[in-house]
């Protein structure tokens, strides 16, 4: 590969960044995909293992009215009234949501993450304000959807949707009410027909669960979220997929299940992850006491570290003692020859990058204004899941496994970062000119590498024929942080991949025992 000089590399990087900044469409290549038409409706999913529910029947759903009653007939007529004068916008929303509700709500969540992935600007006195959930519309708006926060948001929404669908499938098979188009053959059906019972509506279940979680996580966006809920529900009636009682029962069930996850989220210790000035100083002092050079913020003015106590957040796939057990051994000593060699390797790399390396840096950058590294892996998974014709409940199960793996990878990674408090390469050698932004937290281990190791391992289990491709992506994502000059190659990136894969193995263990395989 032909080498280019440093200034040419910077020019190419800036051009790449401008292109990325102008290409913020979260839906991207999923705009024109066909309607979801699963090869297997997974009718037994009501027996799968949930995440928090004690049983699929924990929240009662009343038996539906018979399809011969005047009330049901009136609900079918409501569909016909809608269909008599469909607008182009109504046809658009049917097409949009029929691609798959898990897919669409994940895209919407990624859009919110990207919107809020903006670090606050400093106060006049050089301090930094902190977003407040109690006053989410004040500057800086709550939340700052940085990678750990984003990983947690993806996990709570996906896991709540999965549990809600397990309950929905249980009641679908219990009551076995057919879809309205099976009751009245004169209906104009705008989505693929299915043998899946329609009560309660799986789409309304997903909308109810997602909305409850997302309103907690993004309280300043409640109007936007509710607008999407109403659009989603309306699309199913317009399409002839559900009558109104299917929708109402589904939404109520989704909301009820979500409240279990809301309660968990309020007590998972994430609210205390920011820490305080005394804690930040203590971490620095502890590192010095070990005879090491401590990490420091390279921003001006000095910015507080990002979520130093996120490693204490309650994980989904294992307990807090396992977080400690998954913590790797220490990085090379900051005064040793091994560290000097790693710093020199970063300096040499950033002094003479190739065009291909610049491309890789910015493809995987996932910085400010993006849906973060966990969201990048959600997008990768979504594109591949589309091709597999999964049912909604299997989509939800797979997304929940991935999202929980990413959240738990963030927890283990942040525990490691702030336990060792290791400096960045450009702190060790100020001559290193990074080719992407320098994150405001310690170096060891690489977050990108940890996220990527966990995601690639789990996705390789879900789609085995793609395992080698996922591994290659993870290796490239990890390498991108070394290419960019913000991580050491062997210790940060190499060890991060190993730790991430270890987290991914816990997701695989759950997958093998959840009843879906």
Automatic annotation (TrEMBL):
Gene3D superfamilies: 1.10.606.20. It holds the Pfam family PAP2. Residues 1-23 form the signal peptide. CDD domains: PAP2_haloperoxidase. Residues 409-501 form the Phosphatidic acid phosphatase type 2/haloperoxidase domain. Keywords: Signal. This is Phosphatase PAP2 family protein. It comes from Chitinophaga tropicalis.
């Amino acid at each position: 590969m032909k080498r280019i000089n440093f200034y040419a590399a910077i020019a190419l990087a800036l051009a790449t960044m401008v292109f990325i900044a102008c290409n913020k469409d979260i839906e991207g290549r999923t705009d024109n995909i066909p309607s979801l038409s699963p090869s297997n409706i997974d009718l037994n999913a009501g027996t799968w293992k949930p995440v928090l529910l004690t049983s699929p029947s924990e929240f009662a759903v009343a038996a539906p009215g018979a399809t011969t009653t005047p009330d049901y007939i009136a609900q079918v007529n409501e569909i016909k009234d809608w269909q008599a004068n469909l607008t182009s916008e109504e046809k658009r929303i049917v097409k949009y949501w029929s691609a798959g509700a898990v897919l669409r709500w994940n895209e919407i969540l990624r859009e919110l993450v990207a919107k809020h992935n903006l670090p606050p600007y400093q106060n006049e006195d050089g301090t930094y304000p902190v977003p407040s959930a109690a006053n989410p519309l004040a500057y800086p708006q709550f939340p700052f959807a940085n990678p750990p926060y984003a990983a947690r948001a993806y996990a709570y929404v996906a896991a709540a949707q999965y549990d809600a669908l397990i309950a929905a499938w249980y009641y679908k098979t219990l009551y076995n009410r057919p879809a309205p188009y099976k009751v009245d053959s004169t209906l104009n059906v705008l989505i693929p027909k299915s043998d899946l019972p329609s009560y309660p509506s799986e789409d309304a279940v997903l909308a109810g669960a997602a909305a409850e979680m997302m309103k907690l996580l993004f309280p300043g966006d409640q109007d936007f979220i509710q607008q999407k809920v109403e659009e989603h529900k309306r699309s199913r009636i317009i399409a002839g997929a559900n009558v109104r009682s299917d929708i109402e029962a589904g939404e109520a069930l989704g909301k009820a299940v979500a409240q279990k996850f809301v309660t968990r989220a309020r007590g998972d210790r994430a609210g205390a992850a920011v820490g305080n000035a005394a804690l930040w100083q203590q971490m620095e002092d502890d590192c010095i006491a070990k005879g090491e050079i401590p990490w420091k913020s390279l921003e001006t003015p000095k910015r507080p570290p990002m979520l130093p106590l996120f490693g204490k957040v309650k994980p989904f796939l294992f307990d807090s003692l396992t977080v400690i057990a998954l913590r790797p051994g220490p990085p090379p000593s900051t005064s040793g020859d091994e560290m000097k060699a790693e710093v020199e390797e970063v300096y040499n790399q950033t002094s003479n990058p190739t065009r291909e390396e610049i491309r890789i840096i910015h493809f995987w950058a996932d910085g400010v204004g993006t849906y973060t590294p966990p969201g990048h892996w959600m997008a990768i998974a979504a594109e591949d899941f589309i091709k597999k014709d999964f049912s909604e409940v299997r989509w939800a199960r797979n997304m929940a496994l991935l999202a929980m793996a990413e959240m738990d990878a963030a927890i283990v990674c942040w525990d490691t970062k702030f336990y060792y408090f290791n400096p960045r390469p450009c702190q060790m050698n100020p001559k290193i000119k990074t080719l992407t932004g320098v994150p405001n937290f310690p170096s060891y281990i690489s977050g990108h590498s940890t996220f990527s190791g966990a995601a690639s391992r789990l996705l390789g289990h879900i789609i085995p024929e793609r395992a080698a491709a996922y591994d290659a992506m993870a290796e490239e994502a990890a390498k991108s942080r070394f290419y960019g000059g913000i991580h050491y190659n062997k210790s940060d990136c190499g060890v991060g991949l190993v730790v991430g894969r270890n987290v991914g193995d816990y997701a695989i263990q759950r997958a093998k025992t959840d009843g879906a395989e």
